[in-house]
Amino acid sequence: MKKIGMGLIGPGFVAAHHIDAVRRLGDVDIVAVAGSSQASAEKKAHEYKIDRSYGDYKALIADPDIQVIHNTTPNHLHLPVTMAALAAGKHVISDKPLALNANEGRQLRDAAIAAKVAHVVTFNYRGNPLVQQARGMIARGETGDLSFVHGYYLQDWMTDPNVYSWRSDPAKGGTTSALGDIGSHWCDLAEHVSGLKIAYVLADLTTVIPVRYSSGTSAEAFSTKGGSDRQPVEVHAEDLASVLLRFENGAKGSFSVGQVLPGHKNDLQLEVNGRTLSLKWRQEEQNELWIGRHNQPNSIMAKDPSLVSKDVLPYVHLPGGHQESWADAFRNIMSDAYQWVREGGKPEARPAALATFEDGYRSTCLVEAMLKSHAAGGAWQNVQHSPSNS
Ligand code: SOE
Fold first, then answer.
1. What predicted TM-score, i.e. pTM, was given to this entire model?
2. Architecture of domain 128-316+365-374
């Protein structure tokens, strides 16, 4: 089988996981990496054991051995880098959020559809087997109609004011922090699993740490590195937010996100309550799915190939009791993405669990509605999502 050539632009925190996941597929050749300078690209290429490096992303996109571009640059570069890749007819796997705002998100969605290539956004929690199990149970009517969809995504890596990364810089990360970075994951997961669309939001945003101390360099997510000579920087983006939701079918919902909540490492939880069953999945205990019942005892389904439904089996790689993890779910998404690439990105060949630029655009619309709601003093705001022309 001829290997597919892949090139990655923007080697930060998440890039290592794109590379690891793609290497595990076995049929993809990691051709090159591009960084902000030739020196930084070479350093990363050496670290990841990749032969070619480019100091200019346009040179990587032009490399004829590369068919798929992974865009893991900071958010402000998502638009130009992805647009250039699409213009060159390359398949694109973009890290989330797809873009800085809904306007950019729509442009990217439209350009990707017009380019007739595979277009993927790494909403990677969809790759967890028990997430797909929950989605299937809801779609088959096992929960009954959903009345409430709720949860949270809480982290603590920004608790220390000395953590200052591009995510807090509006020019690079955008005007949102917690909602764009992790609220985007929660909302995508809630809509994907429930099969329902969020129609209205009411958001309350807070910046718990309004002054951070920068060492001049942009730290990677979860990094504690940085010098002692730091300068204060005012931060306006939210690091804590709570949002009420109304879904299109009348179901209600709510979630909170925070990046400064001590003890919460990557604490993502989604619960849905139907008329018959409730389901709860928590990322930090991702090998278990809680099933809540009214007239019978509650139970916990283990991630076990003998227990999950047949369509979930491609996402399970180990027998029950053998824990699978964040990196395995990420690999599942990459496996789906490259399956789509092998099919030439034909719309009808897209694996059902895979998030596309349509989903990425939708996520920017949801976040934008939340920002508007907060700016209006906490007023209900409808989600404006323009349909694609094709
Ligand atoms: C940092 O908050 C981060 O790396 C996010 O950017 C990822 O999307 C999430 O999966 C883990 O946390």
1. 0.96
2. 2-Layer Sandwich (3.30)
